[in-house]
Amino acid sequence: MAVNSPVVLDPERVQKLIERESAALDERTRGSAEMYKRARNSLSGGVASTYQSRDPWPIYLTTGQGPTVRDVDGNQMWDFHNGFGSMVQGHAHPAINKAVAERVSLGTHFAATTEDGVVVAEELQRRWGLEQWRFVNSGSEATMDAIRIARAYTGRDTIMKIFGSYHGHHDAVMVSIGVPYDRIGDRENYASLPYGGGIPKAVSDLTIAVPFNDAGAMERRIERLDAEGRKPACVIMEAAMMNLGVVLPQDGYLAEVREITRRHGVVLIFDEVKTGLAIAAGGATERFAVKPDLVTLAKTLGGGLPAGAIGGSAEVMHVVEDGTVFQVGTYNGNPLTMAAARASLLEVLTPEAYRHMDALNDRIVSGCQTVIERYGLPGYAVGISAKGCVTFSTVPIVDYESFKANQDVAVTELAWLFNMNRGIFMTPGREEEWTLSVTHTDEAIDAYVAVFDEMASELTA
């Protein structure tokens, strides 16, 4: 929760600190600058993905071991970035290394199902309580296929999502994500705004956005769409929003959403690309005790290799089994990925591992909150198992509107720079959070809190 009487931070001081820390980071990453000069001749923008970009140059990494990474300049850092939340197993985990090494010599690709794939599906079935599974290679593929399955099952075209949530980079969900606050519109009738160029308006108009933590607004929008002959095929949502920092569901909200979607015959999809296997053995579905019709996984599933999955009830997934939906992909269930996923699920992400990450998150949230209260910072710490963040806002963030209206952008930028210059590798931007791994220790957590304390001291001196 937010502090009661936070200090008012001096914007000029914040900006001066940003300039100082930016110059320091540029100085310590000259090797990355040289790599950027080379990379931009062949890679668009010098990176493999736009989300890896940074001005004036990206940070290029060379190695990872357990809870640490090293960049091309030789800077070793505690890794709280963890591949945008993918590496809760830690880097180069011995169990996963062994499984991958053994699989390599047996063949890495057949476009045929292996026993490892069956074992992984059986374990996911056990953890989520959903009967049928299929594999893909990324979160975007998982959400794309889940939406297609929902459309085929219901025979409807319109879909519904939460305003501000990211569900991958296919056209149907690149809608109403990062848009200016003054373009959001009325929360009872949010606009369907494409996220970037190349998205046909005809496609974005099929995607309707509603606010998070407001089940009433969702039901009213469903009813209006139904009256227009456009009842949605599905609601796709994160059970806990993970691209506005961390925004947890309010008590009773998810259960109400489950009841609303069931009552209106709308397929409920939990996008667990970020939460799945990161906040509990059975993800948000287990943690919040609400079962969707379909769930999508990726990130942590592959233990560092590209992976994704769709799980669902036998009733909804029947449209896949009977051939109505062609759920296909050459690399789906790739043997190397399935070997890594099997080792990760059975040997790494154990009940003991989740107890360890829960304890670490309690430590980092408590440590950061203590710093906030000591210095009177405008903000609060929030976390759940492997995920968490400090939100720089004087009021609790409950949805995209409150995020856009209240989050302090400059301080989040400064926090990233402070971390990077003091041995903490973090995801950039005000939307992202820390990700812990089974290999993190109290030492790593205390290092993070110490850097935060140093920043707080300088901000309020």
Labels describing this entry:
single chain; 461 residues; alpha/beta; Aspartate Aminotransferase, domain 1; Aspartate Aminotransferase, domain 2; seven-stranded mixed beta sheet; four-stranded mixed beta sheet; 16 helices
Question: Could you name the CATH topology of the largest domain?
Answer: Aspartate Aminotransferase, domain 2
Strand content: 5-15%
User: Measured on Cα atoms, how large is the radius of gyration?
Assistant: 22 Å
Counted beta strands: 14
Structural class: alpha/beta
Number of domains: 2
Unreliable segments of 5+ consecutive residues = none
Sheet with the most strands: spatial strand order: 4-10-9-8-7-5-6
* Straight-line N-to-C gap: 24 Å
CATH superfamily of the largest domain: Type I PLP-dependent aspartate aminotransferase-like (Major domain)
Largest beta sheet, briefly? 7 strands, mixed
H/E series, N to C? HHEEEHHHEHEHEHEHEHEEHHHEEHHEEH
For the record, the CATH class of the largest domain is Alpha Beta
